[in-house]
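Notes taken during the Thursday session

The instructor put the following on the board and asked us to keep it in front of us for the whole hour. The protein is Cobalt-precorrin 7 C15-methyltransferase. We were told not to look anything up and to reason only from what is written here. First, the residues (192 in total):
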Amino acid sequence: MDFLGIADEEFIRQDVPMTKQEIRILSLVKAQIAPDAVVYDIGAGTGSISIEAARLAPQGEVFAIERETAGINLIRANVANFAVPNVRVIQAEAPDGIANLPEADAILIGGSGSRLPEILEAVTPKLKDKGRLVLNCITVQTLMQCIEYMRTHSDTYIYEAIQVQVTRLQQVGTYDMAKANNPIYIVTCWKK
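Then, after some discussion, the predicted structure tokens were revealed:
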């Protein structure tokens, strides 16, 4: 049986950014992915979210959209490693690559390359009614762009935002020291 929360170390990563395990778990829970869901993972990086989404939706389809060739290669390697045949890898800089996709039940955005408003405009008509849009925002600017979009589209979306910061113990000699990861804002949007 597949479980949610694959250890970070199990992914092939190299120098490509990856959504860490705890943030991945929360984001996927917020997305409420059904077994037959169609899911977009925009700014897929290493494909860690795509792979976990594919395991949650074995009868569904996951579209991993990534602009960087290094990321595309890692996604393909991780898809093969985890044997998830329902992941479709698309090399494009979003919002490019979205127009011809089927309607989505859930959309996760982990990277926007400074094109978040354009991406939100492109995905809004593709997200099914009652679908969920989940954004992981590293910067305050990205968070504010997201909130501004949701406020100006309040007839389409209801949203909530949480801030999460994970701190892990790290051994330093004979001591354990708390080492904090950067805080992440997770914005969950429900399409009315």
